[in-house]
Structures are given as C-alpha cells and as structure tokens.
Amino acid sequence: MSAGRIGEDRTTVEQRRVVEQPWDARTLVIAPAGTGKTFTLVRRLDRLSEQGLDADEVLVLSFSRAAVHELERRSSRSTGAGRFVSPRTFDAWALELLTQTYPGDWHLLGFDERIRTATEAILAGDAEEFLDGLRHVMLDEVQDLVGDRRRLVQALLETLDTGFTAVGDPAQAVYDFQRRDAHDVGDVFSWLRDHYGEDLVELSLTRDFRAVTPRPAGLLACGEALRSPTGLVDPGRIASSVRRELLDVPTAGALQDVVTGFSYLDGNCAVLCRDNGQALEVSAVLHAAGIGHQLQRRSGDDLNPRWLLELFRGKSALSVSRDDFLAACGLDADTAEATWQALQVLARGRDRIDLVRLRALIAVRGLGRLRLPTPPAAVTVSSLHRAKGLEFDRVFLLDSDTRDDEDPLEQARLTYMAMTRSREDLFRLTALPNRAPVYRRKSGESGRWGLARFGSGRRPWLGMAVEGHDIDHEFPAGAHGFSDDPGAVQRYLAEVVRSGDEVRMSVLARDVDDCPAPLYGVEHQGRLIAVVSKAFREAMGRHLGGRKAGDRRAWPATITDCHVEAVEVAAGSTAEGARAGLGDHGIWLAPRISGLSRFHYEKAEG
Predict the structure, then answer these.
(1) 120 neighbors 113 (Cβ within 8 angstroms)
(2) Which of 311, 330, 306, 313 is nearest to 321 (CA)?
C-alpha cells in the first residue's frame, strides 16, 4: 500500500474527508481492497487526538488479529498521538470487558460465548463503568460482523450514543457462514443506514493503491455490484459475472507444470484455494517439488518460534531483562526491538519479561495475540477464507468447479476478494487433477479433511489431515511412548530437522488409555522425534468411527505424506522436563507436522 508514509500529509481528497470528520460524527466508509483503508484509519486516529480526545477515549476494534496487527504496525510509525491507541479484536475486547465487569475465569469460555455474555453485560448496564469515558469507536472490517459479533457492536453503539468510524467493503463479506440462526438477517451496513438515517455520514474510498497493474474494468464492476444492498443483487447473475472475470485472468496452466518456477519469482506469492483441503493438496505438490512454503494457519493456531527456548535455557530465574532478551533471541535489531515491545505486556510494569506468564502463553499457543513480528514467507498456500486481509506481489488462484451446495453470492465475494489480493500479477491455475477412485472430502465426524475411496467398504478412509495440535507437548520426546535420551533428541531437533522434511508415523503401542486409536511415533530419517497427541488419536477415532482398539487391522500401521512445518517451542510438564535434564520451566523443542496424510494398513486376510 503506497498511499503515503505515516507522518506525511499525502492523503487524497477522499481520505481527507474521512480523516477530518468531527469526533462525534457517525461515519460509514466504504473502502474496497487496496484503497488505503489502514493508512486512512491511522490518520483518523491522529486527527481525533488533535481534536482533543485522549488515547483511552478511543476504542479501535477489528475482526481479525491480522488486521489488528497491521493497524498497530502502521500506527507505531506515526508521529501523531494516535500511535498510543491500542487496536483490539472483538474477542479480546469482550474478554477484557468481562474480566473487569464480573468475577471469574472467563478464559475458560469459548469465543462465541464470551461475545454473547459481553453483549448481555452491555445491555444490562453492568458494563457502564468499563465503558465510561469512551467518546469515539473505530470499527475495522465491519463487513465481517455477523451473528454474535454484530449484535455486540449494535449494543455497544446504541449504549454509548457517541461518534464512530465504521470501515468495510460489502464486496468482501466472506463470513456469512458464521450466522447462527434464521433470525440473523440483513447486514451491518443496512443496520447502520436504517438506525442512524440522515445522521449517518457515508463516504467512499475509490483509488486503488495496491494494484501496480490496474484492475480490469469488469472486475471493478463486479465489486460495485457486490457492494449493492443484498436485496438488489441477483446472486446467480453476479456469480456468473465474477466467474467470467476469473476465466479472463491469464492462465499459468496446471500447478504441476509451473511449480518449479516458484523458486525463481521475485517478491512473495500465494496460491489461493477454495478450501483447506485443496490447500493441503497444493502443499503436497510443493513439497514433492522441493519448494519451501508456508501453509496459512487458522486463527488461534499459532506457531511458538524456536528462539523462545533461549530465554528459558539454563535459567532458574522467573524473568528476563531486556539485555538478556536481546542477547538470547538471535533476531535482527529491528525485529528484536519490535518483539521486545510486543512482549512488554508480560512485563507487569517492569523492564523484565515474566517467564511464568510467557510459558503460559506458549502452552495455549497464545503468542499470536501479542502480534510478534514474523518473517514473511516467499510462498504462501491458503484457503480463500484464510487469505482475507492479506496481500501478495503475485497470486495464483486455483480454479475449481462450482458445487451445488454452495451459496453463489458468498462464493462470488470470496472469488472477488481473492482476485484483489495481488499487488502486481494475478494468474489462474487449472483445477487439480482428479485422482479417482480416491477423492478429497471433509469428515463430518472428525471435522478434518481426508482422502476417501468411492463406494462403500470396510476402509473408505485413506487418510486424514494432520494439524498443529497433533504432536504431544506434555512430555519431552524420548520420555514417553519410546525410550531415548531426551537431551539427544533435543539436539537432533535443533541441528538436523528442518522445515519441509518428510516424516512418517508408525504404531508404538495399542490400548494405551481409553482412546481406541493406537499411539503413533513420528519418525524422521528413521529416528523417532515425537509422539502424537491424544487430540490426534481422538480425532482419528472419530474419523475412523466404530473401530475397536484391539483390532490390529482396523487402524493404519503407518501414516505417510506428512512434513515438518517447523520446529517450535513446546510447554509441558515441569517435573518431566526437570527429570529429563531440560531445565525447570518445562520448555523444550517439538516438531510441528502438517499434511494430508495417507494411511497404510497391514495386509488384509485372504
């Protein structure tokens, strides 16, 4: 995005209209992809400060952590007072509201339940003290506010009766599937227009700063159509129009034919897929070609970077100073400083990071909420939904046939959103080849993608997706499931195992506990480096439902087509860690595995 560097007054006329609205104005901004939305919001924050609002009088909420991170990153470069405002996701803010309004451990509730309870607290007047003093609310990505989150925003705005700046793009409303019931109709744009009427100031941003190559006129027309009120859009017609635009995109051919060329591309690129099942298949093709890449993870499934181990290694202290952190992390100066600032939330008002609190976040994969800077991947593979809010130099959009059960309007928005992720080049890839009689589908029992065989039979499932939580973190490798020197395994993980390496799983033990699925060990070049988690075994039990633990041939003897995504830091039993000679904090290395795995059974009878 090149709408101007923060601190320089290079706003366009359209952006200035948004920025210069009075603090008590009720403003709706329609901001298509690449039109400088984040830049405009940062300048708006600075202007609110110039109008006399303090940082704690402005609430900034966004739908995703990625959007919050981008807002925070841009704000930090500003020279205005707006940089002191801390953007938050709706989920994180709801948790803060509940923690300060009611006693109890609200971390134990799921996101949706916390959102609903926070809404009830606002409507009941119980959160009045928490909300006291807010004079302006800034809402980012409002097109994705549906269901419980939309009701939270409505309750908040009606209760505060103050100024707000709501920004979004109806053409990128891709989360309609999250609606919970038939009573949740309409959208946040219609509600704002109906509720505030003539008091609502509606503005638009139209200049595309992202695209180095101008977007086709037909695609822009599709975007305008998708921004029309829902009742005025013919879903079938707009879906056909977006589909025609996609077919006009230059084709790069089949993924298998062009994959080796990914190594020679300048900048970064993405392969965008209809769903995560396709993304896993694309990842397998890239692995086979030796192309390093990153699978875009779902929100909340965060990687614990391995350099964190150095903060705990050989230390019995409960905190780390800034100098110790900078010496141990091994990051470049700019990244190290940004990371230290992000971790200051764990400092408890001091200039030292609390290792107990840091360990707790590692254990629940909660580091993503701190928005630690991560190096960008040269190649990213993502489903369309997970690509929301991201941008790349080049995008390869994987084509696929339409399905009878999909909402044509939602699919049109998803495709349009994907076609606006590129800064320079957009290419279309032909659909993945059919591997009949084997096909990819999602299991209703396990909720995971897998490989299945057409027709009925004793073994219809040929594989299951392996995910981030599928490696046991409770015990260090070598201390449970198989016997090895845990210290030697740790050295092997640190020095030998690399991202992209192939691994296989094999049965270590059966009838381990109340879970019917066997315990599998993870082998790297013939050496055991981990065991699977109970969550993986339970998912396999649901995936292959009805099979008994004692039936040897009911369960795969080996599982292949898995790869190391990364070697990360794990938090487990402090007693087991100390017993294994790995320190007192219960922190060690573990592989993170992913892939659309393939099952291999023992030879059947007869």
Answers:
(1) no
(2) 311
